[in-house]
Design brief:
With 261 residues, the protein is of the alpha+beta class. It folds into 2 domains: 87 residues, no CATH class; 150 residues, 60s Ribosomal Protein L30, Chain: A. Helix content is 54%, strand content 11%. It has 10 helices and 5 strands; from the N terminus they run αααααββααβαβαβα. Strands 1-2-5-3-4 form a 5-stranded mixed β-sheet. Helix 8 links the parallel strand 3 and strand 4. Helix 1 packs antiparallel against helix 2, helix 2 runs antiparallel to helix 3 and helix 7 crosses helix 8. The chain is elongated and about 100 Å long. The mean pLDDT is 80.
């Protein structure tokens, strides 16, 4: 019998199971990658999941799977670090604000004693804010209706505050406020003009009569947009018509433009 006609006997391939096993392991690996990423989901983790799955299903990119997992873990650590940093900064800001409020407590106690008659009459109000100590001059005691000229009878009250300002180096904001009754005169076309005009008038008294350096002061006119109570009745309106002298603490002064301390 010719060798040429002899049929070549094909041997059974007993190693084909390895291919199926490899596919199974790859899919199982992809499953665990998805579970890992989902369990640690955060902002932007969808990208990590997609990358990991694509890499896991491509046998030639198995190294990318490990990289995707490493990136996911790094993202988690970064998020944890970021949260820790935010909490730390928040605690530092709270501590700084608390220290800043304590900074002006001696001034508040002094003014409470000096202005006790005026506080009892309701012509002056004192209150501590996060940004500093606010002294409210009520319009009825300091200005005539529709006017920005300081009454001469109010000068002794302003003098007490001026004395307190001379003892401390803090920056000062003078803020004018009105009620919600519109004004339109030859001098003041709106409540904005009136509120700013009154703040400027108090600033002029501080600088001209009590030698408070103008570099320490700034003014603001708020019209009726920042009331301390509603404008439902005349008593409430009277409380809103005021000029606030705000002695800024270190925390409040840091927000002043060009004056970070």
């Amino acid at each position: 019998m010719s060798r040429r006609n002899a049929k070549h006997v094909q041997h059974a391939n007993h190693e084909r199971w390895i291919v199926s096993y490899a596919d199974f392991v790859t899919l199982l690996f992809a499953f665990f990658v998805v579970m890992f990423a989902t369990a640690n989901a955060d902002k932007g983790k969808a990208n990590v999941v997609a990358t990991a799955v694509r890499a896991a299903l491509d046998q030639e990119k198995s190294s990318s799977v490990a990289q995707a997992m490493a990136d996911s873990k790094a993202s988690d650590l970064k998020a944890e670090q970021s949260s820790s940093d935010i909490a730390k900064r928040g605690a530092e800001q709270a501590e700084k604000a608390a220290r800043a409020m304590l900074e002006l407590m001696p001034s508040m106690e002094l003014l409470e004693r000096e202005l006790k008659p005026e506080i009892q009459k309701g012509t002056v109000e004192l209150h501590m804010e996060g940004r500093g100590l606010a002294i409210s001059f009520k319009q009825a005691a300091f200005f005539d209706s529709g006017s920005d000229s300081v009454k001469s009878s109010a000068l002794p009250i302003i003098a007490k505050v001026g004395e307190a300002l001379r003892k401390i180096p803090n920056l000062v904001r003078l803020e004018g406020h009105t009620d919600n009754t519109p004004i339109h005169t030859a001098r003041f076309v709106s409540n904005w003009d009136l509120s700013a005009g009154r703040a400027i008038a108090v600033l002029v008294v501080f600088t001209d009569q009590f030698n408070i350096q103008r570099e320490r002061m700034s003014i603001g006119g708020y019209a009726d947009v920042a009331p301390i109570t509603n404008n439902d009745d005349e008593k409430s309106k009277a409380r809103n018509r005021r000029v606030d002298v705000v002695i800024l603490n270190e925390f409040g002064a840091s927000a002043e433009p060009g004056r970070k301390r």
